[in-house]
Amino acid sequence: MKITQVETFLISAAPPQSGGWEARNWLFVKIHTDEDVYGVGEASGWPRVVQTAIEDLTRLLIGEDPMQIERLWQKMTSSIMGHGMTGVVGFGAMTGIEIALWDLKGKALGVPVWNLLGGKIRDKVRVYAHAHDADRARELVDRGYTAIKTGGIRNCVESVAGIRKEVGVDIDLMVDVHGPPWMTTRDAIALGKRLEPYDLFFYEDPVAPENIDSIARVSDALDMPIAAGERHAGIWGVKELIEREIIDVVQPDTGRAGGIRQMQKIAAMAEAHYITMAPHDGSLGPIAEMAAVHLMASIPNFLILEHLEDDVPQRYEVMSGQPEVVDSYITVPDAPGLGVDIVEDACAKYPSQGNISDPEPTYDYLYFWTRENRATWLSEKEKERSDYRPGSVY
């Protein structure tokens, strides 16, 4: 069997006319062979740029045996080393290709991907959904969710207090600060101290991801689990976080961490330090999510998986084999490969319109907004602001 073509599908994953974090794109990958067996994958890490990187890498793959996944990954890595490790763009491109190769291999052998990863140790994978207010949290709990994440800086403490009061102590609650703008170390600690009474499942990305020493200081100062890693690529990106035991939860992004094997290696590194894994899925489409489901079925230190519920209608149109969430769990599929496929006609309905965020008028660079407005995000008077929006970062 030989690879004959690598195809990409770049689609908008945002509501019409939206900006900010909603200026998302999904990039699906389809690898064809001379035996009419194909595999599908997904890449993130600035998808419009990653698409170009995949086009460059394609010539290295044509004519190769798709079953030799690790060899092809090493070949791609060597080819881009002249650009440095390339971060989430290069690793995002290799991720989309590598996931598609695993799907292809599973289909060719007639087994699910989890079977190729050492087998599964669980039949279902726990997931959480997002809520920025108590009403949404109540809706999700009524639908069976047992874990909820909220986020943002503005009004964070009041939002968490309201959600905890509404859903009670038996629901796991997480907070994702998700800058920019980022908080300073001292401010992240101050906010964390205010959140400690609410028994968080974890406190995510409290400071800028590249500031490893700052993450360590926050971790040392707070009595709650710290999570990070979604903005890092490969085993090298999270190496220091794990080896120094700065974090309690590692969160590689399924679409840009380097692929299923890289995430498997990250999980093993973390396991040696008794650190759990909760993959990031917040900017990703349904194919990457299913890749994470297969992998998380096979690793012992899995904690929980992010799931975007009802975010955009295209999520439920562009992929066949949609998972069903029942009581906060997704059942691990038994179909060959990932058990999903790209619906190409549906992808064509959502052409990419751009792939960068539109900063809001109130935006100030880096940490300056949080520094200058510290009194408001630590205050109960935040709702008196004329531009107040629940759950807003700004």
Explain what you see.
With 394 residues, the protein is of the alpha/beta class. It has two domains: 108 residues, Enolase-like, domain 1 (2-Layer Sandwich); 232 residues, Enolase-like C-terminal domain (TIM Barrel, Alpha-Beta Barrel), CATH 3.20.20. The protein has 14 helices and 15 strands. The strands form three sheets. Strands 4, 5, 6, 7, 8, 9, 10, 11, 13 and 14 form a ten-stranded mixed β-sheet that branches. Strand 6, helix 7 and strand 7 form a beta-alpha-beta unit. Helix 2 packs antiparallel against helix 3 and helix 7 packs parallel to helix 8. The N and C termini lie far apart (52 Å).
SS-based structural class? alpha/beta
CATH class of the largest domain: Alpha Beta
CATH homologous superfamily caption of the largest domain: Enolase-like C-terminal domain
Strand content: 15-25%
So, CATH architecture of the largest domain?
Alpha-Beta Barrel
Poorly predicted runs of 5 or more residues: 385-394
Envelope shape: globular
Distance from N terminus to C terminus (CA atoms, Å) equals: 52 Å
Question: How many separate helices?
Answer: 14
Helix content: 25-40%
Order of helices and strands: EEEHHHHEHEHEHEHEHEHEHEEEEEHHH
| Oligomeric organization of the protein chains | single chain
Total domain units: 2
Brief overview, please?
The chain folds into two domains: 3-110, 2-Layer Sandwich (Enolase-like, domain 1), CATH 3.30.390; 116-347, TIM Barrel (Alpha-Beta Barrel), CATH 3.20.20.120. Helix content is 36%, strand content 16%.
